[in-house]
Design brief:
Blueprint (H helix, E strand, L loop, with lengths): L6 H9 L9 H4 L4 H10 L12 H6 L14 H17 L21 H11 L15 H13 L10 H7 L3 H18 L6 E6 L4 E6 L2 E11 L8 E10 L3 E2 L2 H14 L3 H4 L2 E4 L5 E2 L15 E4 L10 E5 L7 E2 L13 E3 L3 E3 L2 H8 L8 H10 L3 E14 L3 E3 L5 E3 L36
Parallel strand pairs: 1-13, 3-11, 10-12
Antiparallel strand pairs: 1-2, 2-3, 3-12, 4-9, 4-13, 5-8, 6-7, 6-8, 9-10, 14-15
Helix pairs in contact: 5-9
Length: 443
């Protein structure tokens, strides 16, 4: 990509080079932030210095991903440091509320609300103090907003939308309390978790594969909605099933499948669902009275295949809730902002990367062999040579070694403050009969 940048922009880029690692100057000395802001507000405007646009700056501030595990050995120390920083911010008056402005705040807009936005970003360490207090939403503000969004699990588009505004306007004292709450959670999980383990952070809706205290793989996930939450557990993964069968729960048979069969007698056949009686014998759907008062007392089992509700893979671990991790044919769900739509089980994006890593020490199961078996569509259970620790945790705030602090929506309301449940999951509840990880596709 070619760039044509004026000398003022190049000078500004040099001056603001530290903005790409915001966790340094601004976070290290938050007590100075308000004084610096006041000085900048009172300073005369320096030509068009505040109005430059630099595509590289817009991109550079987004990188907040770390290879430090959420439950890493340094995690308690890292979050304690974040607590000290936020205590300092609170003692200096916190950060200002940001208004929506007269127009949608995004790159290229000039609006008085951008000054408060700049103040907010400077105090939280997302924007360098030297960026100025212009009313222009320039590329440096754009990059800092994207960084803020990435730290809060929001799409890093640089636009001050509803959820970004809500996250920005959570008071500093509330964020401090959130960090303190999560310090207790992280400390309770500290210690020897194993050389290799899997961690599912429920509010963040992602999975970490950890080896030697480093994240080697991170997968996007879909977890349980508020009415059917995914449970916090300590367990061990003991089995991977390639091309799994899917057996319908009784509630789904009664509420979904029977009404569908009443409308379309070919539904079971088209979705490769077989009826099995108590003796293990297959029963023809044509012999069943689908309009009877009660649903048939039969097993409804879907054959393996790409349309199977668990698609290519099921990952089993010991737990009393009949929860598991699995693939899904509904890959579009991983692109959604709020991925809290299952009935408790965890859907895994790029699940074959994760299973390949899990089966690395199980003889005979290379990535090539995994792919070959999946292509056969033959149900294949695989016992791990050594059970792998797995931890489902509820961590809504944490920090990495580089000082980058992450916050997430308190989706289940466990943090004890309504301001942290930002209503970002409103409208996500699915009515009875909707499709989630316990339901077959409506083909």
């Amino acid at each position: 990509m070619t760039k044509k940048i004026g000398t003022e922009v190049l000078s500004r880029r040099t001056l603001l080079r530290s903005a790409v690692s915001v966790g340094a100057a601004a976070l290290a000395a938050p007590a100075l932030a308000q004084t610096a802001i006041d000085d900048l507000i009172g300073a005369p405007r320096r030509g068009n210095w505040d109005d430059q646009f630099d595509a590289q700056a817009s991109r550079a501030s987004v990188g907040v991903v770390s290879n430090s595990p959420v439950l890493g050995l340094d995690a308690p120390m890292n979050i304690q440091q974040a607590i000290l920083v936020h205590q300092n911010i609170v003692s200096n008056g916190g950060w200002p509320q940001v208004n929506a402005g007269q127009q949608r705040l995004q790159l290229g807009v000039t609006d008085g609300a951008v000054q408060d936005l700049r103040r907010r970003l400077v105090i939280s360490g997302d924007l360098d103090q030297s960026a100025g207090m212009s009313s222009s939403f320039d590329s440096y503000v754009d990059g800092s907003v994207k960084r803020f969004q990435a730290r809060h699990g929001l799409p890093a588009d640089g636009v001050i939308g509803e959820f970004t505004l809500k996250a920005m306007n959570v008071p500093a004292q509330t964020r401090l309390s959130q960090l303190q709450t999560n310090l207790v959670r992280i400390q309770s999980r500290s210690g020897d978790l194993g050389q290799r383990y899997v961690m599912v952070n429920i509010p963040a809706a992602y999975i970490e594969a950890v080896e030697n205290d480093r994240v080697v793989l991170r997968n996007t996930a879909v977890v349980g909605r508020a009415s059917r939450p995914t449970h916090v557990i300590n367990s061990k993964i003991y089995e991977v099933i390639l091309n799994p069968y899917w057996t319908s729960p009784r509630s789904i048979i009664e509420k979904d499948i029977v009404p569908l069969m009443q409308k379309d007698p070919t539904y079971l056949e088209r979705n490769n669902i077989r009826l099995i009686d108590g003796k293990g014998q297959e029963v023809s759907p044509t012999t069943v009275d689908w309009f009877a008062p009660k649903a048939p007392n039969l097993m409804f089992r879907q054959d393996p295949g790409k349309n199977n509700a668990m698609s290519s893979t099921k990952i089993n671990f010991h737990n009393p809730n009949n929860e598991y991790m699995h693939d899904t044919p509904q890959q579009g769900l991983f692109n959604k902002l709020m991925r809290f739509e299952s009935s408790g089980c965890v859907r895994v994006q790029n699940v074959r990367d994760l299973t390949s890593w899990m089966l690395r020490d199980t003889p005979g199961w290379s990535r090539q062999e995994i792919e070959r078996v999946i292509s056969t569509r033959q149900n294949t259970p695989i016992k791990l040579a050594q059970e792998l620790p797995v931890y489902f945790v509820y961590i809504t705030a944490w920090s990495a070694k580089d000082g980058v602090v992450q916050f997430r929506d308190d989706i289940y309301g466990n943090d004890g403050n309504a301001e942290l449940a930002l209503n970002t999951t409103s409208g996500m509840e699915q009515p009875s009969g909707s499709i989630d990880d316990d339901l077959v596709p409506r083909n």
